[in-house]
Structure formats: C-alpha cells, structure tokens
Amino acid sequence: MPVVDVVNLDGKKVGQVELADAIFGAKVNQHLLHEASRWYLRGLRRGTHKVKEKSEVSGAGRKLWKQKGTGRARVGSIRSPLWRHGGTVHGPKPRDYSYALPKKMLLGALRSALSAKLAEQRLTVVDAWTLETHKTKSLLAVLGKLNHKKSALLVAHGENSNLERASRNVQGVTLAAPNVLQPYDVLKHDLLVLSKEAVARLSHSLDPEKKPVVVPDVETIAPAAKPVKKEAASKAAAKKPAAAKKPAAAKKAAKPAKKKGKG
Questions:
Q1: Is 159 a domain residue?
Q2: 47 contact partners, CB below 8 Å, separation of at least 6
Q3: How far apart are CA 166 and CA 72, in angstroms?
Q4: CA 20 to 30 Å from 54, out of 14, 97, 115, 232?
Q5: What is the pTM of this model?
C-alpha cells in the first residue's frame, strides 16, 4: 500500500497515511479516462443552438414572377434556402447531448485518475482545512506552501464556509466534495489536494470489494381473523337447542296416514 505524508496548512509534515492499492495504485486505463471525460463534457453542453428554416424566416409567400416566359430561373418563394436571407436547411436544432454512462466505468475512471495523480507525485494530503479567515489572500498563501503552481483541485468533506468563500474567487482553483468528484476535474488540474476525511470517504466509496447491502426477506403474515361479536354468538347458541327439538316435535305432530276408503 502506498504511504503518503500528511501535512498541515503550513506545509509541515504531521504524519503519514496509507492509501488503498485498489484505489490509488490501480492500473491507469486510458480508455476509461477518455470515455468519462467525453461523457462529462457532453453533459455540460446546453444544446440551445437553433437556425431558422424556410417557414420561420420573414418574407412573403407569393410567387415573385410567372413560371414561364421571362427567361429567368423559376422561383417559388423569396424565403428559399438558395436566396440571401432565406431559410437554412439541415441546420442544428435544440437537443440534449447527455447520455448514460455505466456506473462501473465511471468509478473505474476515477480510480485511474487518482492513481495517475499519485504516480505523477501531484497528490497532497492535508490534515484539515482549518482556515482562520475567509480571505482569498490567506488561501493563496496556504497553496503557495503546498507547491501550488498553475491550478489546484481541493477536495474537502463537510461544510467549510471559509474555504468555500476563499476559493471561489481564485482562478484555476476548484473546490469539490468527495461524492461529486469527477475524473475530468482530477485530470484537468495540476495539483490534487485531499483532506484526511476525503481520503477516507473515497477509500470507502471506491472500494471494488465493498459488499452490497443485502435487504432481508420479509415473510408475509396472514391477517388475523375478525373477532365474533358477543350478541351474534349468544343468538347462535340460543338457536341451537330450538333446532334440536324440532325433529321430536315434528314426529309427535305427524298425522296418521289416511286409510283408503272402499268403492
């Protein structure tokens, strides 16, 4: 596992941290980096381009001169695409340039980008982003002690108002959270500065061997039977003996069979 020095905002070493091989020591896949960068840039396009077609430009719809007899080329409308100020054919229309990229490809590209930065020795880990003030001047002084030259990508976890306000007005400096870190941003900036909390978050979220959360199966429970009302139960119990006495009473009340008369 690669070991990186942890420095404070003054540029002094205060400790060391071990980085996971699967995340910061992975093989750099150029194809994944290209696909992830292309997907990210396509998503940034607004796609608001639009040209006017023949039916949208200004101009009358009458025929300028008769079809035959003038010696000139036949023409049907002044808005023809062949004419100046006419409509445009096959021009761009508003569209959405974004498309879906598999999540595994995006995570693999992020691992490759982080590994490339570590291999180029352009990755720095700071103890914490504890700025005393929100002034841009103080942040520039800190970046100068961290060997900042052209551009820098600062990765911090949690809310930090001083860091947000100090970095938003510096050209070439971008602040990002670990959960929205993009491979294109990592490759674009010369220096990558991570906090210890950001390293821990990235190590957890980008771990390829992380086991997914398994939701336990829930057995269905049959609904309970509705309780019988007391009045209905008492009525049913009262009807039972009466129904049992009916056959005996019916036997007694049975009429004797009539004898067949003569003749």
A1: yes
A2: 94, 95, 96, 97
A3: 70
A4: 97
A5: 0.71
Residues 175 and 164 sit within 8 Å (Cβ to Cβ): yes
From residue 140, give the alpha-carbon distance in Å to each of 132, 145, 165, 166, 192. Answer: 13, 9, 13, 9, 15
Separation of CA 29 from chain center: 23
| Secondary structure letter of residue 27 according to DSSP | P
Domain that holds residue 32: 3-48+100-205
Instruction: Give how many domains the chain has, as a whole number.
Output: 1
Pairing status of strand 3-7 against strand 13-18 = antiparallel
Assess contact for 25 and 118: CB atoms under 8 A. yes
Q: Is the pLDDT of residue 202 over 70?
A: yes
In the numeric block, which tokens belong to residue 256? 């004797």
CATH label of the domain that carries residue 108 = 3.40.1370.10
193 neighbors 154 (Cβ within 8 angstroms): yes
Query: Does residue 26 contact residue 20 with C-beta atoms inside 8 Å?
Result: no
Q: Would residue 252 count as lying in a domain?
A: no
The length of the chain in residues reads 263
Task: Please give the DSSP secondary-structure letter assigned to residue 217.
Answer: P
**H/E/C letters for each residue in 103-132?**
HHHHHHHHHHHHHHHHHCCCEEEECCCCCC
> Does 88 fall in a domain?
no
Q: Which residues contact 239 (CB under 8 A, 6 or more apart)?
A: none
